[in-house]
Amino acid sequence: MLFEALFLFLAGFFGGVVNSIAGGGSFITFPALLFVGVPPISANATNTFSSCSGYMSGAYAFRNELSAHRNELPRFILLSLLGGIVGAWLLLQTPETLFREAIPWLLLFATLLFIFGGWINRTLKRMASAHRHASSIGKLLLLLFLLGICIYGGFFNAGLGIVILSYLALAGHTDINAMNGLKLLVSTVVSLIAIALFIFDGVIAWYEGTLVLLGTLAGGYVAAHAARRLPQRLVRQFVILASVLITGYFFYDIYGA
User: Residue 83 above 60 pLDDT?
Assistant: First the structure.
C-alpha cells in the first residue's frame, strides 16, 4: 500500500513536471494508474480528474490574454461543454474490453501528435495566413473541428492540448500566449463537464486519483521554479522516448502473442 501510494505520487510529480515544461504528462500518469490495477475506463476518467487542476490554474494565469478574446469565449465554452459531455458519455458506453483494446491506438495517436504537433501547427499557421478570409463553410467546418476535438478530450484526455493548438493555428490565431490561454480554457471546461459525468457514474478512483493529483501539483510547482535550468528539448526527448516505449508495451501486452 505504501509503495503504491509513493508510486502514484511520484508518477503525478513527474507528470506535473513534464506538463509544465513540455506537455505529455498523461503518458506517465495514465499508465501508472493502469499499473496499480485501476480498470482502463476508470483509469482514464481518474486521469482526467487528476489533470484538471493544472488546466484550471494555467487558464487563470492567462486570464489577461483570455480577456482580449472575450467575444470568442462563449463559443469556446459552449462547444467545450457539448463536446465534453458527448465524449464522456461515449467513454461510459464503451465496453471495458473494447476500450482496453483501443488504448494502444489512442496512445499512438497522442504520441504522433506530441512528436509532430509543432510541425502540424506551423503548417496550419501558414494555411491560415494564406486564407484569412474564410468562407461561411470554412467557419462551419472549423466549429465542427473544435467540437470533434472536445469530444476527443471528453473521451481520452491525452494529447488534447496539442490538438487544440492545431485548431487555433488553423483558425488564424498567432499570439502564443493567447493560444495557450484558450487551450487551457477549453481543456478545463471539457475536463470539468466530463468529470461531472464520471462522478455521477461512479468511475473515478478517488484514492489513486488524489495521490496523482497531489503529485501533479507538487511537480508543477517545482517545475515552475526549475524550468529555466531544465532544457526543454531534453525533457521533450524524454517524453517522446517514454511515450514510444509505453505505446509499444501496450501494443505487445494487448496484441502480442
Answer: yes
